[in-house]
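It is worth pausing here to work through a concrete case rather than discussing structure prediction in the abstract. The textbook approach is simple: state the sequence, then state the predicted structure, then interpret. We follow exactly that order.
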Amino acid sequence: MFKKTWSVILVTRFYSYKINKMPKKSKSKSDKETSASSTAKTNMPKGPIKLDSNKNILIQIHAKPGAKQNTITDVSEDGIGIQINAPPVEGSANIELVKFVASFLGLKSSAVSLERGHKSRNKILRVTGVITLSEIVKKFNSQLPPESKIPEDV
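Step two, the predicted structure:
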């Protein structure tokens, strides 16, 4: 009985090793064309402000907690740099960030929510409300230096 169980273990490990090391199937030419066209349709525009599938506005933020005052510092394709006047302790910087962005955009704080990045400096805010993407871009551009403005064709 002892020999049978060891042989079963060895055989199953051998086959699982062979299955994991098998080469993967390559896509045919028609599969590559259809996948390329589907990614072209869902290709999001570059920049920190985008629309999701439900037509909500998503803003990528690079938060810098522990600053002296709340300010917008810079813009890159990774996100909008915002300094927050709150320590990164128990979510207080996240609450302050949501309040600052909501008041900056002229919205209620319930219209702005933290989508992702609760424990990270890179965050995504979701804006729902009566404001358009172009209005948000114009408001952020009004606070930025000319060399780091967000393109308005997003």
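Step three, interpretation. The two ends are 69 Å apart (CA to CA). Confidence is low (pLDDT under 50) at residues 34-44.
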